[in-house]
Amino acid sequence: MIFRTAATSAALAIGLALVGAVTGPQWDPVPVTDHLEPSTPDTTIGGQGPDVQPVGTYAVQETPVVVQLDGTSVDGIVREPLDAPEGLPGVVFLHGAGTGSADEAFVDVATDLASAGVVTLVPSKRLDTYTTRHRDYVDMADDYERSVDLLRARPSVDPERVGLYAESEGTWVAPVLADQDQDVSFVVLVSAPVVPPRQQAGFAVDSYLRNTGVPQGVFRAIPRAVGMEMPGGGFEYADFDVTPYLARLSVPTLVAYGTADPSMPVEQGALRIIADAGANGNHDVTVRFYEGANHGIKIDDVMVPEFPRDVSAWVQGLPGTASAPPTVAGGQPNQLYLASAVPNPRWYGNGDIVIGFVIVGGVLLVVGPLVWLVTGVVRRVRRTPHPAGRLAPGLRWPLVGLAVGSVATMAGLVVYLVAVARLALDYKTDSWVVQGGWIAVRLLGLATVVAAAFIINRLSDLRQARKAVLASPEGGGVVVRPATGVGARTTLWATVVGSTILLVTLAYWGVYQLGI
User: b/e string for 272-286 if b means 16 or more Cβ within 10 A?
Assistant: First the structure.
């Protein structure tokens, strides 16, 4: 009995492992072998000239403004140096992902630039056309163009020296705006993903998981989650490609990354910008890496002081600083893997199907016992002498184990992934959660498989016994059915089908993988 159960359980586990392997793509990122070598650790921008003022030279005046957009308006804040000469350079700030209020975003760097003699405008992000599911980077460029026009009209600003400062998601928008408005004077790209959003998401998830120390088996979930169509539709922007716009970028460009930013392909991004701009004959690209800085060019929530110093010097010194050597300077970046195309899942490529399967499986596990309960109540009310049905001996508890185990494993997987995500986003590790949690989920999954093995073996025994009775020449004996009555039969097969759906889904997400 023990050997038979073990053999059946092993066969089921291997079968689920095969199902998980063939129903979705694997994850095999390409390692970075040739690293970008900065010429010097000193990020100072050379060739600045006598007109370049350091940060802190001027007091800063803040002026609230309203930027009129097509169909709405947004607030903004202009920061200007007091008692500075007119004809100053101007910078419009483009937000990263998420909401962005003018009085909360870019406060430090916008103020620092203004104190050095650069007029800055931080508009609030337009949110009526910006959601998690939908955003259009070309339309966003049109909106930011209104802020550029507003800044050009300021009396203290030289309209021919107005450029863009874009961070993170905004770096997909800035090249579009620079392509549409040929009068944009320069572009500053901070923490630029460069690759399409879906590729950047796959890269970031991989990097976060590696930093957290998750087991290798968890990485299989990356292409299956990132590569599928999200439940409910939308997310068309996930495949937006900024490359054609970068290839047409013809203005001086400053690129900045923090070496401790795990979410961006820092070396690949810098090389791509240099190559794409160079293909257009634009060799005025300056790259700076800030040692130990994160995505916001900060260390311990404090902006690296050299960063606003370098940006303000570069902006004020243009055009002389556009090609000032060295092209690449700062800390040594260490990108481990390339950001590349995320494989698309085969049969689970639609997120609605993934969620639908889980819902259907869960509903079936509820429907069976509910039908049995209702049938029993009805029979009692009507005082029907026949019972609502019963399961064959040896099936009840394995069936309970299968239902509870499949639901518990699915819930455990969700809880585990959420816990890992929180650790990853907080840059923390916890071996009890990361390693122990994965082991616990897989053990739950194997226990569920054992319950399924009991059921399969018991059903096989009942079938063989039934054949023996029917084949008996005497025609005697009692045929024991797996379940009698509508309620019991519904419970049996609804539980089997519902649990099978959940087990296949768990296999897809890697719970049963055996290195296959």
Answer: bbbebbeeeebebbb
